[in-house]
Amino acid sequence: MAAVENKFDITKHILVPAHTILSEDEIQKLLQQYNISKVQLPVISLLDPVIKVIGANKGDVVKIERTSSKIPYYRLVA
Q1: What residues are paired with 19 via a beta bridge?
Q2: All structural domains of the chain
Q3: Which has the closest alpha carbon to 9: 50, 46, 68?
Q4: How far is residue 77's CA from residue 62's CA, in Å, rounded to a whole number?
Q5: First to last CA, the chain
Q6: Percentages helix, strand, coil for the chain, rounded to the nearest 5?
Q7: 61, 64, 66, 55: which is closest to 78 by C-alpha?
Q8: What's the predicted TM-score (pTM) here?
Q9: pLDDT (tens digit, 9 = 90+) per residue, 52-78?
Q10: How far is residue 9's CA from residue 27's CA, in Å, rounded to a whole number?
Q11: 28-59: pLDDT as tens digits
Q12: Is 42 within 8 Å of 30 (Cβ atoms)?
């Protein structure tokens, strides 16, 4: 049986918040701001559908901007 292709871009779905991969500079600023290390961030699975679509790799930090909150969420891809 052939693999099923995505029929639409999941990142454009109304229920999926914006996900952005942070640069190394942005990661360092975030870690300094909260006085934490990278491993103290909550994790998001490398197998998460949005993580696959945006091309994030293990060890990347992703900023998630939900419309219901003005505060961004940060996740370490694991």
Answers
A1: 64
A2: 14-77 (3.90.940.20)
A3: 50
A4: 7
A5: 30
A6: 30, 20, 50
A7: 61
A8: 0.86
A9: 999 999 999 999 999 888 999 999 999
A10: 27
A11: 999 999 999 999 999 999 999 999 999 999 99
A12: no
